[in-house]
Design goal:
Largest sheet: none
Number of helices: 5
Oligomer: single chain
Number of domains: 2
Order of helices and strands: HHHHH
Strand content: under 5%
Helix content: 40-55%
Distance between the termini: 72 Å
């Protein structure tokens, strides 16, 4: 009986370790599929402030570092400011087939259906709380 339980726990440990190592390997490759509904616009400038794989993997670290600079030292702006991300990655409305729909108002990056931030975070089952305090649309929209 003891040998059977020992074998069970050993197999369970092996399975968990395999899954964990497989996940790390996929994250390092940067090739994880974000699903068919992910909206990945390159932004209004045509390119991001960093390579796609780096931004997918490290954008939260960049945002936290910028937050600390702003809160502790009063340094605002910079390539990794949340405001810059929103101004660039805010997108136009899309129809059922993914086509751009004529609209004079862009959608929020936090829109649960097709916002730039939400599509990936929903797929990855990650809850973002940036927009509990921050506005999720650009200054052009909020100044209207």
């Amino acid at each position: 009986m003891f040998a059977m339980m020992r074998k069970f726990w050993l197999l369970l440990l092996l399975a968990v370790a395999s899954i964990a190592l497989g996940g790390v390997s996929l994250a390092e490759q940067g090739e994880l599929s974000l699903g068919e509904n992910a909206v990945m616009s390159v932004g209004k400038s045509g390119k991001c402030v960093g390579p796609t794989a780096v931004m997918r993997r490290e954008h939260m670290d960049f945002l936290l570092e910028q937050r600390d600079k702003t809160m502790r030292h009063g340094i605002r702006g910079g390539d990794h400011a949340l405001k810059k991300c929103i101004d660039c990655h805010e997108d136009l409305k899309r129809g059922e087939q993914g086509q751009l729909v004529s609209s004079d108002r862009p959608i929020s990056v936090n829109d649960p259906r097709d916002g730039f931030c939400q599509t990936c975070h929903q797929f990855a089952a990650v809850r973002i709380d940036c927009f509990q305090c921050h506005v999720a649309v650009s200054d052009a929209v909020t100044s209207e």
